[in-house]
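Entry 14. Ran structure prediction on the chain below.
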Amino acid sequence: METNINCDLGETSIHSSSDNDPALLQIINTANIACGFHAGDENTMVRTIQISKKNNVSVGAHPSFNDRDNFGRKRIKLSSIELKKLIVDQLEIITDIADREKYQITHVKPHGALNNMACEDYDLSYDIGLAIKEFDKNLIYVCGASTEMEKAGNNLGMKVACEIFADRNYDDHGRLVSRNLSHALITDPEESLLHTVSMLNNQVINCYSGKKIPCQIDTICLHSDGKTAVPLAKKLKEGLLAAGFDLKPLNNFKKFL
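Output, structure tokens:
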């Protein structure tokens, strides 16, 4: 089965470090790169794309609300016009840098509160998808599995990659457990691997309560700034390969060719 490990990278800010990025880029298949609105800057984007290119890691935009103070984790209400501009502005920033580095942007994955809101709100996720599609119809829309975002992407006729998280727990609605709760994160590499393989083999979201939600899964995300991010990524890659999964960049999936 084709699958993919993606990671949110280039998130240099007062809230996050990109120290783990070079090591992670030797392990993962796909990088979601901060575009400067919640974290990152031009130098970080350039460096992240250069290392990704060296390691044959596909790269994409990781757009967010324009809110560095809260690392893009504060919910903000925007009109459709404001939202479209928010997405396009960030796509233009990272595409310009990628073009200079002669490396292609392959996908878009919203960040933080924007992602969480889109998973819950069909109209919001439709507006995000439409902005992406009008910018470049070939970009893959990375969406939370079994969410309103996935529905919107499919209805827009986009290339949709359905995502689960290796390092986060889920509530009974299939949404990520709030970071304010003690069981939000999965930091043990072995626990993360078992959690992920179980979801992939059964094509379900494993909720913390034990509930299982059927879904399609294309890609597995892990976060870059955790203390165990690198060993977790290594364990995940080794375990998935040993279990017979075919790891590759998203844009090399047969369904997207």
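The chain has a mean pLDDT of 97. Will compare against last week's run tomorrow.
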